[in-house]
Amino acid sequence: MNKEQAQKATETALQDLVKALEQGKSDELIKYLTCMSRFHQYSLRNLLLISHQQPDATQVAGFHTWRKLKRSVRKGEKGIAILAPLAFRKKTKGSPKDESEQAIAGFRVVHVFDIKQTDGPQLPELVTPTGDPGIALAQLEDVIRGNGIELDSQDLPSDTHGCSMGGKIIVNCNLSAAERFSVLAHELAHEWLAHHSARCQDVRIRETEAEAVAFVVGTAHGINCEQSSADYIQLYRGDSEALSRSLKEIQRVASRILQEIAS
What we know:
The strands form three sheets. This protein has a three-stranded antiparallel β-sheet. It is built from eight helices and eight strands, in the order H-H-H-E-H-E-E-E-E-H-E-E-E-H-H-H. The protein is globular and about 60 Å long. Helix 1 (3-22) packs across helix 3 (44-53) and helix 6 crosses helix 7. It starts with a helix and ends with a helix. It is an alpha+beta fold and 263 residues long. The model has no long low-confidence stretch (mean pLDDT 85).
């Protein structure tokens, strides 16, 4: 697959999502969000490429990275094409000779392989659904407070799990650990999705984007979020560009939350 083919595959993957949503089916989007939970560090288009080519992938890496992990790609396996940036050092005016700014000249196709396409020593187990976030709950609470957001637990009505108030999150104190984790991820998403600005005035879209972030973050930490997932069909508003913007925002915020929990 060359660069033009990879770009075409990205467009095809997005259009496949659009078609599924137009038919009232959110399964394809849930598969994509699940892929995002595994590979949140990848760009939107590379997530689309991975999800489109091998939706059941769990761990991907390049040929040489697998070798460093003492695993080898099996002969004849077809790689998953993604786009990697072509970086170069750009000298800035007045900067010392040994200092320069990194810039992107373009993109090239590279191939990664899923772990099931390799042989070798067993790697540490991935997170599996347990229904218990463990220490990740405390880490998420630290992330919220560490970003200057006030966190308060209150005895709220049973049908109110939490709320985001632009600099303050209130969460129902009667929730289980898994529910609290999911609600905190949802409300932090509201804080970071700029929902308190004029970017998105549609309440349904705001809630769906935040719930999608919570789905990605929860799934990455082994929490089964399907029962509490929103109707993701609402992310599509008859406009593929609007869907793409929502997905980029979901990926950006979910990745930030997951990275800060892990740091």
